Amino acid sequence: MKNNQIFTITCIALLFCAVTGFADADLTQSLAPITGKVFVSSTTYYPEVFFTGDKGTVTFDVMNSNTNTSVMLNHGSFSDPDIRLLSNTYDFSNPLGPLQTRPFTFSIVADAPPGDYYPTFSLSFYDSNLYHKTLVQVDNTPLELTLLDKPDTFAQGNKKTIYMQVSNPRKNDVRNVVLVVSGNGTGATPSRSFVGDLAAGASVPVNFTVTPDQPTTAILIVNYDNGDNPHSVVMEIPITFGVDKTQANPVMSNVQVTSAAGIYHVTGDVNNAGLQTAYTMMVTSLPPAVPQDPYKNYVVGALKSDDFGSFEVTFSAGNATVVPIQLSFKDADGNVYTSVQEVKLSASSQNGSQANAGSNMLPVIIGIVIVILFVGGWILYVRRIKK
Amino acid sequence: MVGQITYYIPYPICNRVVITATTSSGSPAKEIEMENSFLKILINPNAFFQDKINESESLKIPALIVLISAIISAATAYLMVTPSVKMMSSMVAGMDTIIVLAAIVATIVITFISWLVYAGVFYILSTMFKGKGTFNRTLEIVGYGFLPQILGGLITIVVALEYVPRVVVQSIPAGTTDSQVILDATTNLMHDPAMMVLTQTITLISIVFLLWSANIWIFGLQHSRLLSVRDAALCVGVPVVLYIIYTIYKLGAM
Questions:
Q1: Number of C-beta neighbours around residue B208 at 10 A
Q2: Do residues A115 and A140 lie in contact, with contact meaning Cβ atoms separated by under 8 Å?
Q3: Mean pLDDT value across residues A143-150
Q4: CA-to-CA distance for B188 and A293, rounded, in angstroms?
Q5: Using a CB-CB distance cutoff of 8 angstroms, which residues of chain A are in contact with residue B244?
Q6: Residue B62 to residue B154: CA distance in whole angstroms
Q7: Which of A122-131, A163-172, A257-266, A344-353 reaches the highest mean pLDDT?
Q8: From the CA of A329, how many Å to the nearest CA of chain B?
Q9: A278: enclosing H helix or E strand
Q10: Which of left, alpha, beta for A301 (phi over 0: left; psi -120 to 50: alpha)?
Q11: Secondary structure of chain B: what % helix, strand, coil (to 5)?
Q12: A-chain residues within 8 Å CB-CB of B208?
């Protein structure tokens, strides 16, 4: 009996153990595949790359890939010693249905210096935890503002074009890129140029013109948003007045002056000794000369570099011995340039008077010859009658 | 113009022609006679005045010749004054017509005055050579001597029509009171190349035809004042040549 009881008790105990052991084994084997199919399907940082101090968000999409089993999600949290969390953790329990995805979004601020960081996203199930680490970068590289081309010098009231380029050397796109040009007396047009979004590694040209009133400094500011965080880049361009080394340079040559009855007639050539084309080259006389018809002004036209054209102007000058002749032309932007060169009249006017006297001598000679013929004819006629 | 002149002027030159013309004008015989009279004045004035001196004095035909000459000269004056009118059109608005009319009337009046002056000078000078005959007769032969002036005037008109459009006119701005500006503009106009050529050409033409007239006047004066050819030539030639020398001097001083 004692052995039977012991045997019975042992069997019952074994049976109990067997029964309970089977139950534990069955539970473990049935739940582990379920939570193993819950994972972080994607992680999105906005902005993708942070500046130090930038605020942004990170979104973890958690997906339940089980086809017929829901999973209870508890306590979603974000943690990192360098990337500070601004929003709260997810302190609630919610089931995630089969084949469903749920985002967990956290507001963060990158207080860290530039570098790579791996914050942790954790999510608790009822029997286990999910830990997920992703890379987030902090990079303080700003946009590049490049001066492609600008005139060597500027002149008061003359419009000149400055060619710029905005480049994005960062690893992420930036938004709302705007170039703002300011500065006292620069007369920049346009003063604001909207570029829009600028992709990582992309460049965009931005041109503007300045019409300075005085020597000054043009301040160029590129404003842009990294995510929702405004940033800017500043560049200064000195606007200095002077003579453009490449601009057109008209030079008069082969100047000849003649005069007729107080009207001076100046002819000559205009050579463009500069490197740029001189458009609408005009020649006229300045006081004390008074322009007279038929050539008050003379339009030579466009003169390319090393090209030349002839001109002809007429004016009266009273007793003046030197008269300034003005050469004016325009550049490609329509700015007007003038240069003045003096022409001496004294020696030339004498030549002109002689030429004028010469031109008057022919009819005088003809008149005298006619009179002589008439008188001579009558003398001969009278003598013949007397004979 | 020449055709009209040959039709109208010679009519009364010979009384015989006038009488027949009133009865049956236009016959070929009369036209030939008229042309002969016309040509006789120009080509053989000695023969013309030999016949004419036997007829009674009459200023109708000479006055008609001078009038036609004056009208043609007025037409030339109109052309010549046009650039000046353009020059002053802005400065003196509305005066264009008055200036043109003044130029035309002045030219006609001056032509008739010159007729009287020539006749007066020739009459006075011929008196020094003991010339005889009335002043009206002298006036008559001087009037006939204006016939070449008609031809010269016609040629002058053709030349003026050619050169006047080429003259570049500098308009004087409205309201200009500066005499220097006006003087400069006038000087510029007078020394315009086209204007200078025109002036020189017209002067030479007038000299040639004035000498032609002088040739007629010498024979006319010889017969009308009963002078020798030499004396008549001196009476006409001296003032005419002096006048031409003065004209040539002005031409050289331009």
A1: 19
A2: no
A3: 92
A4: 9
A5: 367, 371
A6: 18
A7: A163-172
A8: 27
A9: strand A278-285
A10: left
A11: 80, 0, 20
A12: 370
